[in-house]
Amino acid sequence: MADLLFCEPTELYNILNQVSKLSRLAEPNYLCLLDVRSKRQYEESHVITALRVKKELDAFQPYPVEILPGRVYLGKVSQACNAKMHKDLKIKAHVNISMETTPYFVGNADKLLHIKLEDTPDSFLFTYFRHICHFIELHLRLHSVILVFSTRGISRSVAAVVALLMHYNEETLKRSWAHVKKCKTNMRPNRALVAQLLEWEKVLHGQYLTDISEPIY
Fold first, then answer.
1. Which has the higher per-residue pLDDT, 16 or 120?
2. Secondary structure letter of residue 178 according to DSSP
3. Distance CA 212, CA 195 (A)
4. Angle at CA 62, nearest 5°, toward 27 and 129?
5. How far is CA 28 from CA 14, 91, 151, 186, in A?
């Protein structure tokens, strides 16, 4: 008999947003959901967005994953250009870590932080970590919703949100990495970015606390 697990709406949202097809009863990973919220709460929840999107024209375009509930999302350029996603998630600011541009917040330095950086071993995101954290934390204080993204949403933007969590929650690289990994299972920051996150850990905590030689990194 399968285990009974409890999860928050955020976790369910991220699970539903990272599957390409619905599970079937005959499959070992069959997912049976028992929602204990009221019908009104369910209808108002953004969890339903992840289900609805599969029935529409952009069925193969999942929504950004949720890093901080209703506050910080992690995604890719194509999602950052999607008007419906902006409306559904109430996105009010962007952190763009890519060479691409988007049609939103152009020329508005208060709502757009654009770091033009390639995803290469010699790209140095470390010098921007503090600026990224301050930009996002300012918008969090203003109760704005922020989307952090890069070209594919698996390397540069992931490093940025890991750095944010390390600063915002005063956590180690290991704990922040685990949180983002749980939200986005296909995250793959390049090795140079992982090393830069370790240096960020030393800045925040005064010493290296995470062993990045472990296979999970």
1. 120
2. H
3. 8
4. 120
5. 20, 36, 33, 21
End-to-end CA distance of the chain: give it in Å, rounded: 33
- pTM, two decimals, is 0.80
Q: What pLDDT sits at residue 179?
A: 95
- Hey, what amino acid is at 165? L
Complete domains list, the chain, with CATH: 1-61 (no CATH), 64-217 (3.90.190.10)
- Alpha-carbon gap, residue 152 to 58, rounded angstroms: 17
> Which pLDDT does position 3 carry in this prediction?
61
Range from 16-30, 85-99, 196-210 carrying the lowest mean pLDDT:
16-30
Task: Give the angle 78-95-101 at the CA atoms, nearest 5°.
Answer: 50
Residue 46 has pLDDT above 60, yes or no: no
- For 60, what's the count of Cα atoms within 13 Å in the CB-facing half-sphere? 0
